[in-house]
């Protein structure tokens, strides 16, 4: 689903039973919104501060880590497997991660 409105139609024997419109933007951007509000509005970080993120491989927490990196913070996270730790460091730009 992409940003914008998508039409969903349920049919039976070519007869339309239900037609509705789904707003994809809300569904896809909710984790980003939650991360943004939690990080910028509640935490109010400053450049150079350390940010610790528990269970950092979760979708909302990945965004928090990326926001922290953009702010110039040092990011440390935890994850449950070595694969996820590698992902945090290589793909999401965490400075350090541990199990």
TrEMBL record:
One of its GO terms (molecular function) is 2-alkenal reductase [NAD(P)H] activity. Coiled coil: none annotated. Transmembrane segments: none annotated. This is Alcohol dehydrogenase-like C-terminal domain-containing protein. The lineage of its organism: Eukaryota, Viridiplantae, Streptophyta, Embryophyta, Tracheophyta.
């Amino acid at each position: 689903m992409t940003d914008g409105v998508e039409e969903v139609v349920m049919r039976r024997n070519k007869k339309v039973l239900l037609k509705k419109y789904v707003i994809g933007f809300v569904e896809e951007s909710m984790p980003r919104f939650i991360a943004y509000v939690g990080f910028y509005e509640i935490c109010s970080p400053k450049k150079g501060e350390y940010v610790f993120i528990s269970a950092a491989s979760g979708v909302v927490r990945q965004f928090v880590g990326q926001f922290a990196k953009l702010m110039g913070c040092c990011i440390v996270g935890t994850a449950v497997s070595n694969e996820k730790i590698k992902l945090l460091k290589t793909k999401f730009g965490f400075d350090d991660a541990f199990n």
